[in-house]
Amino acid sequence: MTSSASISLAVSTVIFALRTDERGVSSVWLPLVRRIREPHLDCWALPGGPVDAAESLESSARRNLLETTQLEPAYLEQLYAFGDVDRSPDRRVVSIVYWALVRADEAERVTAGENVRWFAADALPELAFDHNVIVDYALWRLRTKMEYSRIAQAFLGDQFTLAELRGVYEAVLQKPLDPANFRRQMESSGDVVATDEVVTGGRHRPPRLYRYVGDVQLVDAGPLTPRIPA
Amino acid sequence: MTSSASISLAVSTVIFALRTDERGVSSVWLPLVRRIREPHLDCWALPGGPVDAAESLESSARRNLLETTQLEPAYLEQLYAFGDVDRSPDRRVVSIVYWALVRADEAERVTAGENVRWFAADALPELAFDHNVIVDYALWRLRTKMEYSRIAQAFLGDQFTLAELRGVYEAVLQKPLDPANFRRQMESSGDVVATDEVVTGGRHRPPRLYRYVGDVQLVDAGPLTPRIPA
């Protein structure tokens, strides 16, 4: 008979948001927290902590996020359980990792300071534990999911211009996309449709707002959430 | 400060295989094991057990599978971590669930008996713990993944006839598919290509063997496995 008595359980969350620089180029950023205890004292790490015996995994993820970053993300999904034997130097820790995709207005709730800071996802320092591996995996999943789900909506809200949607794809895929080709592909895919609305603000030719069609799935939110029927 | 000292960690695995009845109708089956201790004594349950402190999560899944079912599946993927507070009646258990898709020749290794038995996935008895929810979730993931990955290959091996491939889709989607339409869809998808080989055995018009094209991804095998570049 084996025993798991000496394994600790933790949750961590990868939070992705998009930022656009002064040249109009979007990229993926994430907030990290500085560790204030050993191991890896002073290293940057994903927000997280131990699971309380009385809370579910998702509740634990949400509580840890709120405590460290003030975020209450609409999009929060379980990513993967990381359980390599030697991933923590002083004891065995299995981490259930969630990921959150947040809109710009949500991201503003994160108060950066000495112990919380935003980093570009493709230019991270050496993080605590296996957190670099975790972020790389989350980025790979983000790129993969863009191809078959309306995950971009998590960054944009319900309505968006095609230029905004293209910005999401450019940020995640890390390459510029031709605007005319992108428009053609999106319109022929049947995944997005034009609404009757345009961006307000007095421009001569205000861009039209689009939305995803109803039956494209946003996200696999796990087994206990109502889903769009297949 | 919260603590996870009282949370036990376990792994379980959902094993899916296909069976074809005497009318030629395929369906999804899975082997279950009878519990020989409380809680849920004598109930059928997914094969699994506690994670040993010295083994990784996947190693634990593989060891438990081998011990209970003699299976060493080629396709084994992490499915989800189930961590509801009340999922076990007597203590807090978080289960990392894997799923395995096995070919018919692999499935034959499972020696059914008093404590191991195959069940049709759509006609399960009431299982131990939340294992019915877990199987339903795995079936949903299987159906969803069929749409964007070559997951059917896990049931078939590298080469297969279009009739065999259609059988997989019919079993997973639980509905008959028109052979001519299916052939047209598969051939136009670009996902499968005809090989130069046919089924041997002396039939007058032996069916041609197909294979998936190289750049369709079989499976997300997790963050630590080499992947086909995007």
From TrEMBL, chains A, B:
CDD domains: NUDIX_NadM_like (cd18873). Residues 8-143 form the Nudix hydrolase domain. Gene3D superfamilies: Nucleoside Triphosphate Pyrophosphohydrolase, Winged helix-like DNA-binding domain superfamily/Winged helix DNA-binding domain. PROSITE patterns: NUDIX (PS51462). It comes from the Bacteria. Signal peptide: none annotated. InterPro entries: NUDIX_hydrolase-like_dom_sf, NUDIX_hydrolase_dom, WH-like_DNA-bd_sf, WH_DNA-bd_sf, WHD_NrtR. This is NUDIX domain-containing protein. It comes from Microcella daejeonensis.
